[in-house]
Design a protein that fits this description.
Length: 449
């Protein structure tokens, strides 16, 4: 019925008049600035939190001394190439300011030193003064030289070298030291064949692991040229090597020895550059822009290092079915597994070491008229392209170039004996007739798996 409601149904609520809608907030400059400040603070806190997380261990990292040499372990059952790796009784450790360093010093001077009471190679501890000097060197102060001043006789020798006299006329083989510096990832073992050959011909030879490689410690610091030049100068100081040295580097080691010679020319008589970095390179996968990305870069590098090394092998090896290749592949895996600071060192070197723009360093070498320089390069190098050899010759006009036909970046391993013979001929007489181009059979291809 009209005016009545159904039983149990409450009467409808009277409609209230519509209320006015609230006015929108007025954005003032102060409120906008507050919003931005809040957002920035939150983003900064998030980035800081992410940076606190690192995929790599912090602090100085050491490879356990109990970690066996490559062929003393069960990693690689390839005894036919065991001569390419150092055995445990062949190396020593020395404590420098940034950490412990593995080295091998052999030859007449080393043998004489083992019978001398003045050998400090096993007991050297960096003094606070030395650490301070080292820090100053790594702060780009080129006026500081922590290599000790040469003795009077050494100064006379250096003077004769500076007047373009042949070092071979000043020092006999028995009093000269050849220092071999390795490159980016493979430790001092890469020089084993050449070191053996030179020692057998009467030279004293020093090889060592750069920081973060092989059995040397990995300090928690920047991995740039300054670190490795400082390490080399400090090592020579600790081992009391005071006469001008014959200094040879391969790949990244070429940049290290060039920078050392440019900074301390009075301490270098001869300089060897084997397919050096420092000029434009063919970037391997490990140099991907992703590696340099903040936060995700080290994560990517750590988890992809094994596959990246495999993908980059084609640029460095002539024969990827040889026993040499298989042995060195397993050697790299052993380093990754047993050295807690190895991968971190590689990543920091990729992101902090100037691999491609060292023209000024090489040009500085041309100003050292006394410096005898040789360049050795593989014509099929897929990492440091052979075209760079001509460029480097123009930067160092007084250098000599020896090309290795068909050789790639790891020519020290695959063409070990050929390289050793060239080095010995050049070291014995810097004016000796050297072949401009070496064509030999691929040593590695004769040793298939």
């Amino acid at each position: 019925m009209k005016g009545k409601t159904m039983a149990g149904t409450p009467p409808p609520t009277p409609l209230s008049p519509p209320s006015a809608s609230p006015s929108p907030p007025i954005l003032t400059a102060t409120s906008i600035a507050g919003l931005f400040a809040t957002f920035a603070a939150g983003a900064g806190a998030a980035v800081a939190a992410l940076r606190l997380y690192s995929p790599f261990p912090r602090g100085k990292q050491s490879r356990p001394e109990s970690s066996p040499p490559f062929f003393a372990s069960d990693v690689c059952p390839l005894p036919s190439v065991a001569h390419q790796f150092y055995q445990r009784e062949q190396w020593k450790y020395i404590q420098l300011s940034r950490g412990r360093v593995r080295y091998c010093f052999r030859g007449p001077l080393a043998e004489a030193r083992t019978t001398s009471d003045t050998d400090v190679s096993d007991s050297f501890e960096a003094s606070p003064e030395l650490v301070e000097d080292f820090d100053r060197v790594t702060s780009n102060d080129s006026s500081i030289c922590i290599v000790p001043p040469p003795s009077a006789s050494a100064s006379a020798s250096a003077a004769s070298v500076a007047t373009s006299a042949s070092p071979s006329s000043t020092h006999s083989k028995s009093t000269r030291v050849v220092v071999l510096v390795h490159g980016f990832s493979i430790a001092m073992d890469i020089w084993k064949q050449q070191a053996d050959y030179l020692v057998s011909h009467g030279y004293s030879v020093l090889t060592f692991d750069n920081y973060g490689r092989g059995w040397s410690d990995a300090p928690d610091t920047r991995y740039d040229e300054e670190l490795f030049v400082g390490q080399l100068s400090e090592l020579l100081f600790a081992l009391q090597i005071r006469t001008p040295i014959d200094l040879i580097g391969v790949s990244m080691g070429g940049v290290i020895v060039a920078a050392f010679a440019a900074r301390f020319p009075q301490h270098v008589a001869r300089l060897g550059l084997v397919c050096p970095a420092g000029l434009p390179i063919v970037a391997p996968p490990t140099f991907s822009p992703l590696v340099n990305a903040p936060i995700i870069g080290p994560l990517f590098f750590r988890h992809a290092i094994k596959s990246l090394q495999a993908r980059g092998a084609a640029a460095q090896w002539e024969c990827m079915t040889s026993q040499e290749y298989e042995a060195w592949r397993l050697y790299a895996q052993q380093n990754i597994q047993t050295h807690p600071g190895f991968v971190r060192s590689l990543w920091r070197t990729v992101t902090q070491f100037n691999m491609t723009n060292q023209q000024e360093t090489f040009m500085a070498l041309a100003e050292q008229e006394h410096l005898k320089t040789i360049i050795i390069w593989g014509e099929q190098d897929g990492l440091t392209p052979y075209v760079n050899a001509a460029w480097l010759r123009r930067l160092i006009p007084n250098s000599r170039l020896v090309s290795i036909a068909d050789a790639r970046h790891n020519l020290l391993i695959e063409r070990g004996q050929a390289i050793a013979q060239v080095m010995e001929a050049w070291l014995s007489d810097d004016k000796a007739e050297l072949p401009k181009r070496i064509v030999d059979r691929k040593e590695a291809s004769q040793r298939q798996i």
